[in-house]
Amino acid sequence: MNRTTGAVKGKRVVMVCGVPMDMANCPVRDVMDNIGGKWNSLMILSLAEGPLRFSQLRRLIPDISQRMLTQTLRDLQRDGYLSRTVYPTQPPSVEYSLTDLGRSFLVPLKLFVDWSLQNHDAIRKARAEYDAVA
Amino acid sequence: MNRTTGAVKGKRVVMVCGVPMDMANCPVRDVMDNIGGKWNSLMILSLAEGPLRFSQLRRLIPDISQRMLTQTLRDLQRDGYLSRTVYPTQPPSVEYSLTDLGRSFLVPLKLFVDWSLQNHDAIRKARAEYDAVA
DNA sequence: CCGTATCCGCCCCGATACTG
DNA sequence: CAGTATCGGGGCGGATACGG
Asked: Which segments constitute the HTH hxlR-type domain (chains A, B) (predicted)?
């Protein structure tokens, strides 16, 4: 397999695992930016078992600020991971729930969570050893 | 299932998918910080098919700066994803290769890449629709 | 209850220049 | 070839206060 890189029609292309990746418009980078934020993946996981209201999410994730809760929900809604429905009560209540896209993302996300839980100790150990040398 | 949150022995615990998550020392957050960087996951993918030298990686990923290449490699080595071996030639050559930990991470990572490639269009579409309304 | 608006510190990352 | 050192912009995210 050829792993060289080059400019193809002015595009930066990186061969990774035999698949050409357009770095200028990279899907992986794009998705990673979405869920790589501090709260995004946790938000999706929190909604995995059913819809929740704004204040419920706030109580469920006590450490998040009101600002970041709003922003995270808006970003995830914008990218299609979740939907927002407003119930015209008094005072108003807003419910957030995963879309099909959001639910489908749970598959790789949960695998990632499992891996993290299984290998966290190994990582912490490696880190400690590295720091001990330095 | 109970999804309430609470202080357990002074720790912030969030119930997610039935699993209690300690937010103060969260493995998922820890791992996400490692590979959530701009170049980290791409670096691991680049080394998936075999060891590469510093300059080879530099050519393979043309957009990365020398500084970030060094830093990314050091961070990934520190957390145990890859190993660094120096060959005492003149001039010196340094080879980077995935460890067992790094290779095992390829499983969830590749699943994530596949999902990104499959759903990128849907995300871009959702984003366009959202922006059109606003 | 469900947000907005504003200010601001921090740190990621790029650019550039220099070493062994 | 394989790094290190230094500077600086920009954006993420926290704190706080205010609005419908």
From this structure: 26-124
